[in-house]
Amino acid sequence: MDHSINKPDRPKYGILAVLMIGAFIAFLNNTLLNIALPSIMIDLDIETATVQWLTTGFMLVNGIMIPTTAYLIQKYSVRHLFIAAMGLFTIGTLIAGIAEIFPILLAGRMLQASGSAIMMPLLMNVMLVSFPVEKRGAAMGVFGLILMAAPAIGPTLSGWIIEHYDWRMLFHFVTPIAIIVLLIGFFLLKDKKEKVDIRLDIFSLLLSSIGFGGILYGFSSAGSKGWASPQVYLTIIVGIISLLSFIVRQTKLERPMLNFSIFKYPMFALSSSITMVLNMAMFSGMLLLPIYVQTIRGISPFDAGLMMLPGALAMALMSPITGRLFDKFGGRVLSIIGLSITTVTTYFFSTLSLDTTYTYLMILHAVRMFGMSMVMMPVSTNGLNQLPARFYPHGTAMNNTLNQVSGAIGTALLVTIMSNRTESTATELAVDATKNIVGEPTKAALADMQQQIAIQAMLEGINFAFFIAAFIAAVALILSFFIKRAKPAEDLNEQKSSYEKVGSAV
């Protein structure tokens, strides 16, 4: 495929800068919203089980769209894809910024996600074709640092905006930047693409959408409807059947959307399992912690964002260091140490109280993110290292898809666990409080008692969810002991060719 830019006198660094700014804005927008969730819950009068769809829905759309990007990149030019991606993202941002009800806000987020899902693989592809092999490392380093800046500044910037303005300002802040980047890309990108005879398997896309969507919707709905609701277990069953049908179909297609045959390589299969499990624990923490510090503790949005800044910086600064350590020691040692730190710190988050200090929360979060920074890249890289070169695109696409979907399902599951635990605890506390009431309480006393019960019940729900997350992280830790330093497996086609040569020689 040819994604080169036609004008040789125009530096590719300018084009890459436009693409990176677009990717940075998309990535930043996702990290901005976590701190805003408590404010959105109050303003739109919705529950935690509902508001978490703004996060899980975004990740789910990414998970569904990412497998189609290989087809899109082969079929269309960089210019057309960039304009489509930024156009979808900008329209979604505009819609979310004027939303007065939750369904409109969620629709805006879905549109943002569809644009973001195209943007990231597109940028990666342009970088690969723009730089020779000997210069790609430095280019990827700059790319990584730019994207790591988004989660570093996102929560703090979001907290400041929410503290001084309405939460909709988060979208109004991004909108003009997105429009400017879209216009610059429209005039700067001039590449053309020859027609390619390739078709998207619509039935596979439909099966994957129903599969991932059904499973996620079932887990998300359990928080408000209960596991016994037909709407919960039927959608999960339909999702599982559709997902299994999708996998079977991919094994029979000549050009599968996702190539599941790569799971026959044990280190790749193991690395995928570990990162999926860890994603389930990690994304839930990003959602539960802001709810705890703002809703229960009453900490301002800006201070809540500032509290998460050291953790984001630790992860960003550790990225290049972890890469060097991986080359020297391999993925097993790093993942065992990192997952041990992650498991212990996640357990400590399950012991939060109404007077846990701000400094303690900041340090504990920073240490937790430090531990996670030692796991993700080494484990994923070790798994990809075992694949033959022809499977690299399939391995990357599979990892991106599974990371998004597992993060979305993990968030939905743990928020459901938190909601159910909160409800059951509130009922128990209300019963106990009723037994201890002497005489007829005043309306003010009754309202104060109900507020205290609600806060205590939510605290118990968050602690229990973190406890389950610690258990999930412990599963990943156990799996990490089976990691071995991976070497590129011999391509089966090359192996067959060598056998044929030996046979003909004999």
Automatic annotation (TrEMBL):
It is a multi-pass membrane protein. One of its GO terms (molecular function) is transmembrane transporter activity. Coiled coil: none annotated. It is found in: Cell membrane. Keywords: Cell membrane, Membrane, Transmembrane, Transmembrane helix, Transport. It comes from the Bacteria. The chain crosses the membrane at residues 12-33, 53-73, 80-105, 111-131, 138-157, 169-188, 200-219, 231-248, 268-292, 304-321, 333-352, 358-380, 464-483. Its main location: membrane. GO terms for cellular component: plasma membrane. Residues 15-488 form the Major facilitator superfamily (MFS) profile domain. The keyword Transmembrane helix applies. Belongs to the major facilitator superfamily. EmrB family. This is MFS transporter. The lineage of its organism: Bacteria, Bacillati, Bacillota, Bacilli, Bacillales.
